[in-house]
Specification:
The complex is a heterodimer of chains A (264) and B (386). Chain A has 264 residues and is an alpha+beta fold. Chain A is built from nine helices and nine strands. Chain A has a domain of 154 residues: Alpha-Beta Plaits (2-Layer Sandwich), CATH 3.30.70.20. The mean pLDDT of chain A is 90. At the A-B interface, helix 3, helix 5, helix 6 and strand 6 of A face helix 5 and helix 6 of B.
Chain lengths: 264, 386
């Protein structure tokens, strides 16, 4: 009996040690320093600082046709990013990319004798992904932050809904989910989260599409009127466009350094 | 000591039950807000802070009342404030609780609020505001409670409190400064983007806080026959008057800068307040009541003949509280969002939900104030200070 018990204990001990040791070794070997799975993604589009040019000349001249193109672009964004539409209270609307008149897009730049084509046209607006974003400066939880590629990102799960970023943003580019957006998202894209009520959201330059090697949805739907690319790369197409055309940005005097440029 | 709050007259209990009833009623509305979201408020994508944050801003100012007693008492040995100082400190406690309450009810995801501590963000003014407000709350609880406890036991005030008391003086200035910095450093919010925002906060705080304190002390005197001292109120009313003169002066400086420079961004919001802009004029009535109340309060408070008359003083203080409340608790926060960054105007008015939930927060603060003052006055009467 005695030897049996000793034997049992020995076997049990060895088994435990082997199990523990093996487990630790196995888990240690499976552990890799934290890495971004996207880093290994070959298709992923990379940039030092993403930026966009909105070339107004490339939109149709006819006002109605132009509206249709704008709406197509907005629709592409909304269906890709599950942006709610037609909320019960219009003042609580969520906007990622939208259109407005010159004097609202460039307040202070208007004049009483504005060229007709500028005065009558609408412009597309979206988050400027500023180099010095005030929204990131004020956020108390780093729920909004600047990625290395310049995209001003949102962590929808960290945001406490204080809306300080909305007070900080000089462009009105941030929206708060006053109510549950779910019922107002028309065709849900299962590959992208639908936000919850009580958090702030905005355009994220379709970071999820960049990872798949695709351009942002609005750019893809714009037939070349929206040019997206790396502002840090002097050889990029966007830099060539910027070199060859006179461009303006919204409210540059505030020092935010927007990454969205307009060719008026 | 706390047992003093458990024994009281019928009036005391009716008041407590009334406050609890308001808290209960308000919390029903808050539960609905939690379920439906802030869509039940009048806020929107343009005016994204409203009544809640405005009340928060105002009550940061009210919390200052204490320092206007603590400073003369401890730095200038003005013994006349000895009987009132505990009341001031306890009022600061209640005011800070109200502030915190309003921030919490304004959050879209209040259950995540500790993210502010889990992810401390040194570049956010809200982080510092959390620190200065909770610090001020702690300082006032510790100081007032321990001093009162020493009095209760008929021992001298503990010496170790002295450094904390001096710290609380500086700290009181910090809560206004940081709360002003919360809004004064935001680009493209013209009403807020002014270097005198923090000085305005201080001036407004140092008149409205002590004014409310005087009125509450007079009410308490009526019900408990605890006299905080004629001399204390007289000097405090003087302090209130100087602060209000400064407050009005700073506001006029804003008017001058905006209209003499003729820069549209600076003018628009002030024009919106006083005459309306592009047909939007929801706040014009309030703005003129503010102006009239401010001027009248000075007419009453500045001449010592009126100010030293108890009834006139009361009228002057009520007008002053009305003017400062409209200024900070109504116009200032909403005004930062008008016109919006596109230059268009979305007007704002609080909904019934916002008012009921605000009543809940107010009642909570008043309940804390009532209990703390009941204890303080009970102790002071027992040791024969009354």
């Amino acid at each position: 009996m005695g030897s049996n018990r000793r034997q049992f204990l020995r076997i049990a001990g060895i088994t435990t040690l082997l199990g523990l040791g093996g487990g630790i070794t196995l888990s240690a070997s499976s552990y890799k320093p934290q890495s971004d799975p996207a880093q290994e993604n070959e298709k992923r589009l990379r940039a030092g600082r993403w930026g966009m040019v909105i070339d107004m000349r490339k939109f149709p001249k006819d006002p109605e046709e132009r509206q249709r193109v704008f709406d197509r672009i907005i629709e592409a964004c909304h269906s890709t990013n599950n942006v709610p539409e037609g909320e019960a209270k219009p003042i609580q609307e969520v906007k990622w990319i939208w259109k407005d008149h010159f004097e609202h897009v460039f307040p202070g730049k208007e004049n009483p004798f504005l060229a007709e084509r500028v005065e009558q046209s609408e412009f597309l607006l979206l988050c400027n992904h500023c180099k010095n974003p005030p929204c990131v400066r004020v956020c108390p939880t780093q729920a909004t932050y600047k990625r290395e590629d310049g995209i001003v990102q949102m962590d929808f799960h960290r945001c406490i809904g204080c809306r300080y970023c909305m007070a900080g943003c000089p462009y009105g580019s941030r929206s708060f989910n006053f109510c549950d957006p779910g019922p107002y998202v028309k065709d849900k894209n299962p590959d992208f989260p639908v936000r919850m009520r009580g958090v702030v959201e905005k355009c994220l330059f379709c970071y999820q599409r960049l990872e798949e090697g695709k351009q942002p949805a609005c750019v893809e739907a714009s037939n070349g009127a929206l040019i997206f690319g790396d502002l840090d790369d002097p050889d990029s197409h966007i830099r060539q466009v910027l070199r060859e055309n006179y461009t303006v940005r919204r409210k540059v005097d505030l020092g935010t350094e927007p990454s969205v440029f307009y060719i008026v | 000591m706390l047992e003093k709050a458990l024994k009281g007259s019928k009036t005391y209990w009716v008041w407590i039950i009334f406050l609890l009833a308001v808290m209960g009623a308000g919390s029903i509305f808050y539960i609905i807000q939690l379920q439906k979201g802030l869509t039940v408020t009048g806020m929107g994508r343009d005016v994204s802070w409203g009544f809640y944050i405005a009340q928060f801003t105002y009550f940061v100012g009210v919390a200052a009342s204490a320092v206007m007693l603590v400073l003369p008492l401890y730095l200038h040995n003005q013994k006349k404030f000895e009987k009132m100082v505990t009341l001031g400190e306890f009022m600061a406690v209640a005011a800070v609780v109200i502030c915190m309450g309003f921030v919490v009810v304004d959050l879209g995801q209040p259950q995540r609020m500790l993210n502010m501590i889990f992810h401390p963000t040194l570049n956010s003014m809200l982080f510092y505001d959390m620190i200065v407000l909770s610090g001020y709350l702690l300082l006032n609880i510790i100081i007032a409670w321990n001093n009162l406890h020493a009095e209760y036991q008929r021992r001298p005030h503990p010496h170790w409190l002295k450094p904390l008391i001096y710290l609380s003086i500086v700290w009181a200035v910090s809560i206004h400064t940081v709360t002003a910095y919360l809004i004064q450093g935001l680009p493209a919010r013209h009403l807020w983007l002014t270097a005198i925002m923090a000085p305005r906060f201080l001036a407004s705080a140092f008149c409205s806080g002590p004014a409310i304190l005087i009125i509450l002390a007079l009410i308490a005197k009526k019900f408990t026959r605890y006299d905080p001292g004629k001399e204390a109120i007289r000097i405090l009313a003087q302090i209130v008057t100087y602060a209000m003169v400064t407050n009005v002066f700073l506001f006029l400086c804003e008017l001058f800068t905006a209209y003499y420079s003729n820069i549209p961004g600076h003018e628009h919001i002030l024009t919106y307040f006083f005459t309306g802009l592009h047909g939007a004029n929801a706040l014009v009535g309030w703005a003129w009541v503010m102006a009239a109340a401010a001027i009248l309060s000075l007419v009453i408070l500045v001449p010592s003949r009126f100010r030293n008359h108890p009834d006139m003083l009361l009228v002057g203080l009520v007008l002053l509280i009305l003017a400062t409340w409209i200024d900070k608790g109504l116009l200032l926060i909403v005004g930062g969002f008008i016109p919006n960054p596109m230059g268009t105007i979305t007007e704002y008015a609080p909904t019934g939900y916002e008012l009921m939930i605000s009543a809940m927060v107010y009642a909570t603060g008043l309940l804390i104030l009532t209990i703390l003052w009941k204890v303080a006055i009970g102790v002071k009467k027992e040791i024969g200070e009354a």
